[in-house]
Every structure is written in structure tokens, then in C-alpha cells.
Amino acid sequence: MIDLTDRLIQPTPFRAANGNLKWHAPRRILQTLCGALLVVLPLTNGLRLDLRRDEFYFAWHKMAAHDLFLLFWVSMLGVALFSAVSFLYGRLWCGWICPQTLASDFADSLKKRLDKAFRARPGEKSAEAARIVWVLSLLAMSLGTGVVLACYWLSPAVVGAATLAPWRDVPAGLTVYLIAGVIAADMLWVRRKFCHRACPYGPLISTMTDTNSLAVRFLTERADECISCHKCEVDCPMEIDIKSGVGQHGCIGCGECVDSCNDVLGRRGIAGLIEYRYGTEPERVTKTLTTTERWGLWDARRVAIAATVPISLGVVLFLIYGTLPLSASLTANGAIVRTGAEVRNTYTLTVGNGSPNVTRFDLSALGLPTGRVEPGFVTLAGHTNRTLPVTLISTRPNPGRTPVFLRLKAPHTGKDIATIFYAPPRK
Ligand code: SF4
Ligand code: SF4
Questions:
Q1: Which of 28, 112, 169, 330 is 20 to 30 Å from 292 at the Cα level?
Q2: What is the CATH number of domain 326-423?
Q3: What is the pLDDT of residues 66-110, one digit of tens each?
Q4: Does ligand 2 come within 6 angstroms of the Cβ of 94?
Q5: In whole angstroms, what is the distance from residue 17 CA to residue 22 CA?
Q6: Residues of the chain with CATH 2.60.40.10
């Protein structure tokens, strides 16, 4: 028995009486932050793939949705992050970050609070009233979530208009109300059943973890200290018994059972029997780990998998910030027209905007007497290319071939492209 009576403290939301960390409050804080991020990102242009407008927003930069190279690397960053978190920290993703758990926790916790507020008793009108308020709250919450999630694919203005008048923009309206419907069904009826029966992550995680991945474990070597209070089972949102073994399919690694055991045994001055722990070895108690081990970096394989995250992030940042701001080429297409004194030469211009922002490039002709260019400017979305005809025009050209430059000028960049302007002799 690990006797901690000499270290008993007044329990707080973050510490049990035996001084051990409690996970419920930190988990709720992280869930709240993730929920807020989920809402803020699409509404502030932090993340959106708007195929209707051919726009891709990432980290508050606007780029072209057809920039598949960038999309590929953003996807790779997501895959790397997901794999690394899974391999190092097991199912912590499920219990601490997953939106499905967030929705289920919210629905369950709201039900408990409303039952308490209405002093609901089964079979009484108070229970019925609490349930009606619960259902209406979740329906409103689902519509709000549907609006927010639709903003990952469509602009907030389009989503707002389609929510108020779905018949005016049926595809957008359907998107909002279908998402809202699915979320309402999830929060009202499905909740944890999805994690138990339908979530593909459960079976997948077994291929992405090993015995040294972080998991919630019942310390079998101290099983004789269990007082069979069953609080760990009662408090488990997934209704499983962690004492039956580590890595059970339904366990989402939320840590509620860790808190429960620390609450019960902590008051008796005993260390809890359930812990987050890397591996099955008793010596891998969190307090004895080095800093790198504490972050789950046990061996070269873990370091390599974790390294894919900064590598992918580096590539994405380079693609956003590091590419050349402007690329351009010009080819004469042979169209030369003289109308009186005016001579027109037409070319094909290919211009690439390497910056993440929408940029206007002003076009002008250098070295061409009374020269001008049509069109006078070209505007490109971030990370897009465009090919277009441009015409150099002179009303007083030197006869024959004249070396000239087509100048592209934007606020922070520019380029002069050398070419030849040909003025045929007057007839
Ligand atoms: S067993 Fe513990 S960690 Fe797993 S889901 Fe239940 S309470 Fe959460
Ligand atoms: S909370 Fe702790 S003491 Fe109580 S049943 Fe669970 S493991 Fe045993």
C-alpha cells in the first residue's frame, strides 16, 4: 500500500486529497478551448475550403482551392498530427479532443444540470419539463453547430442567408439543415453509442499503439487494495470497468475513473489504483520519468513519428510564406496589327501569384514610345496562376524590331519581362 496520510491536503478541482492530479477540470478546459476553436476558425477565415468560390483559407491566409499541392500538405499535416497523438498518447484524442465526446459530454452534463435545476423525479411533471427544455436546448445547439460546420465549406454570408431562406439557395440550405439534423440526432439519441459501435478510430487505434503508448490502467499489482466501491465504474461515461483490463474497446481515456479512485482512496491517505501510465511496467510511474519520456518519446520510432508533425508544418508554412511572390513569362503569339499610326502586338502572358493574398499586378510597357498595355492590370487570388492575352500598343513606334519590357508591378513585388515589339512599315 502506498501510504500518503502524511501528505493529505484539502481537495481542489485540480488535486485530490492525496495530492494526485485530477483530470476532470483540465479536460473540461481543453474541451472548451477546442470547441471555441471549432467555432472561431471558419467564422474568422482561419480554415475553410470554399469550392464554390475556389478559395482555401488556412491560418487566416486566402489561397486558391485548386492549389492541390498545398491541400495535400495540409492534409498530410493533419494525418501526421493524428498519427503522432495516437501513437504516443493512445486514446487521449477520444476523451480529451474529439468533437463527438464533446457533444456527448455537453448533452449529458446539460441533462444533469437541468434535472437538478427542475428537481426532476422520474414520472413527475418536473422530469417532463426538464426533458422538454433539454430537447429544445439541444435542437438550438444543433442548428448553431450546423451553421458553424457549414462555414467550413461555404462563406459565413452565404451560410447565414441560406439558414434564413433555404429555398433561395437550396444546396447551401440543405447543407446547414442536414448537418444540424445529424447533430441533433447524435446528441439526442446516439451519443456514446457511436464511440462503442460505429467509430472507426476504435479498431484503428489498436494498429497505431503499442504497449508503451499512454493508457489509463488499473494497477493490477495493487489490486488487493481495491475496496470494491465501484465508483470508477459508476463515474465512467462509457459504462466500462477499467479493472477488467487496459485498452478496452470502449475506453476513451478520459481519466474520470482516475479521479474517482483518487477521490475515494485519497481521503483514506492511499494513492489511487488507476493511473495514466506508459506501458505495463510498474517502474513507469509518471513521477519517475525524464522530461522527454514524460512527453511519450520513449524510442527512435516515437521520435520519428513525432518528427513528421514539425516537418509537415514546415512544408505548409514554406508553401504559404516561402514561395516566390511572383512568376511570369511572356510569349509572342505572332498577332501584329497596324491601324494607321497605331501598331498592336499581342502576346500570351502567364503569371503566377506565389503570395497567399489576392494581388493586383499593374501592367505597363517600358521602352515603347507612347506605349500602353491592354489590359492595364491583372488580379490573382493567392497561390494561383493565370494565362491571358496582353497587347502592347504604340501610336508612334520605331519601325522594325524594338527591344521592350513588359512590367508587372504589385505593392511588394514586380518583374520586367524582356520581349520584342515589331512595327511593320507603313504601306
Ligand atoms: S475507463 Fe476510465 S478512462 Fe476509460 S472511459 Fe471509463 S472513465 Fe474514461
Ligand atoms: S474506485 Fe478505486 S477502490 Fe473503488 S472500485 Fe474503483 S479501483 Fe476499486
A1: 28
A2: 2.60.40.10
A3: 667 778 888 999 999 988 988 888 888 899 999 999 999 999 999
A4: no
A5: 10
A6: 326-423
